[in-house]
Amino acid sequence: MSSFAEFIDVKYGPDLNVINQNKDQNYISELLIQYKGVVLTNIIQQFGLGPIFDIYKRGGNVTTLHNAKSAVFANEAEEQRFTKNYSQEMRKKVYEQDFPKNRKKAFQQNEVIKDDYTGKILPKDGRAHRDHIVSASEIQHNDRARLYMSDQERGTMAVDQKNLAWADGSLNQSKGEHDLITWMNKDNKKDSSVTNAEYYGIDDERARKKHDEARKYVDSSINKAETKYYIKNVTSTGVTQGFAMAQKQVIGLFIYELQEALIIEMKAYFQRYKTLNSIESKIVGFKEACKKISEHMLAKSKTILISFADGFISGFIGNLLTVFINTFATTAKNVVRVLNEGVHALIKAVKLLINPSKGISKKEALVEASKVIAVSVTTTLGVILTESFVIYLKTTPFAPFANLIGGVLGGIVTGIVSVTVAYAIDHYAEIVSKLSVFMSELTYDLKVSTAEIREKYYLAITTLDVQYQGVLAKIYDEYEELNLLISNAYDKKLAGENLAVNSVVLARKMKVEEHKILKTTDDVLRFFNN
Predict the structure, then answer these.
(1) Rounded distance between C-alpha atoms, residue 57 and residue 318, angstroms
(2) Are 462 and 482 in contact (CB under 8 A)?
(3) Using an 8 Å Cβ cutoff, are 63 and 147 in contact?
(4) CA distances (Å), origin 151, targets 68, 132, 225
């Protein structure tokens, strides 16, 4: 339970603030003063500016292959391209670009046209076909090609010379959309006793070389397109999200600092308003208050600019991280929100740890960093829960005021929870100590039955009773012995020597110092004579 507190104390020394804490301190006031900056800024940014800068969506800002297969797209253009059905119209429009014109041009430029699969000379007429070595159908049904390449890019790749072969018309029609090597090894439909390669007289080495070259070219083209796709989209969406995050951070901090300065200066102005006797003095006082507000904002300008840079960097990194996660799992909108806000909080926390403000110890910096992360995550979760609450209110008679009611209540509750979380972090050791005692008592109550407790109680009472009786008996014996010694020491029936002996025994029992005891008749005489 106290491992974290122990780690802090061992690593950075004891928390003197906790040790010297004033027990009469007003904790509520302390909380409001100490954490209102962090909490209010987060509330403003998330509740006030969140709807304006709503940069989060399911699956993030970039359509990954995993998301596309799960029917989750970042934009409509990619969805339409990826889900478009393959048809003869598409084949002619996309994958047979200028086929008739290019074939005619090839007939004019080449004296001889050879079949690239058999090596035979082809006639310069309709029997000489141009075959997609990697078929148009296969390219169209390749998910990666469909996502990462536009229709035009896929079409250009399909009709590149590296993927085209001259082939006899009947051979090309028989091959159709099949993979070349797979088709070659199949039995021929007209003569099942031979393979297609044997039936059409295909040169195996020649055909395989063309197939491998085409396959390598197509795979390489798709890989290049994938790299280009992610670089382009991650960069553009990262900049967009970074700028939106930066704006939200700057405006939120600006609003907080402005209202903070306004409250302080206007309160001071109105407190001395009655002492200002003339209109001119009141105007001068108001101008002075405005000047102090502007000076406060100028003093905070560096902090505000830094928050812009932090917001941009966190937005960009958050977008990149979201893309990475979506390559293997589709993130919900709220997960994207928590992820990006968490990245921003983490960056701020790391900055606090690496470069703490002057006068702040390592321990204090660690606590402050923890509060930044905790409050950020708490506020983000508060926004998510508030959105759910608003959705529920829209199903009730309060529907017209759902956004207003949900926003106000969500902001208040989130603020209270955020402050409490921050306070808990600041007073971790104290809370854990009290919680440890409570848990120990609770654990004892849960583990030990009532009957066992009752049995142990009566056993303890019995033991105490025996011991008490023993003590009383001992006291009685002591007093009995003492009483006997006193009687013997003052018994007038005994001779003087015997009385003296009994007196010595009594004195020793009473713990009189040895040199003060009168042991003989001479000792008695000397005592009285002196």
Answers:
(1) 13
(2) no
(3) yes
(4) 17, 16, 12
Per-residue confidence band for 468, with pLDDT thresholds at 50, 70 and 90: low
The owner of tokens 């703490």 is: 356
Residue with tokens 């905070």: 300
Higher pLDDT, 488 or 58: 58
Q: Which residue in this structure is represented by tokens 């996502």?
A: 147
- The CA distance from 378 to 418, in Å, is 6
Give the integer Cα–Cα distance in Å for 215 and 134.
Answer: 7
Distance CA 420, CA 413 (A): 11
Three-point CA angle 191, 195, 196, nearest 5°: 90
Distances (CA, A) of 62 to 142, 327, 335, 360: 19, 10, 15, 41
pLDDT of residue 140: 94
**Nearest partner of 233 among 491, 483, 60, judged by Cα:** 60
**CA gap 446, 129 in Å, rounded:** 86
Which residue's entry shows tokens 């926390």?
349
In this structure, the dihedral spanned by the alpha carbons of residues 494, 496, 500 and 503, taken in order and rounded to 10 degrees, is 40
Q: Which of 403, 524, 292 is nearest to 50 (CA)?
A: 403
The amino acid occupying position 76 is: E
Contacts of 79 (CB under 8 A, 6+ apart): 63, 73
Q: Which residues, in sequence order, are bridge partners of residue 128?
A: 168
Q: How many C-beta neighbours within 10 Å does residue 376 have?
A: 25
Other beta carbons within 10 Å of 50? 23
Location of structure tokens 């806000």: 341
Query: Which of 166, 195, 200 minimizes the C-alpha distance to 182?
Result: 195
Percent of the chain with pLDDT over 70: 79
State the Cα torsion 79-83-85-89 to the nearest 10°.
20
- Separation between Cα atoms, residue 130 and residue 110, nearest integer Å: 15
Write the DSSP assignment of 436-462 as a string of letters: HHHHHHHHHHHHS-HHHHHHHHHHHHH
With a cut of 60, say whether residue 193 has pLDDT above it: yes
Residue type, 33: I
- What does the pLDDT look like over 130-165, one tens digit per residue? 999 999 999 999 999 999 999 999 999 999 999 999
Residue pair 211/288 in contact by the 8 Å Cβ criterion: no
Instruction: Based on DSSP, count helices (H) and strands (E) in the chain, helices before strands.
Output: 23, 4
Q: Which residue has the higher pLDDT, 328 or 7?
A: 328
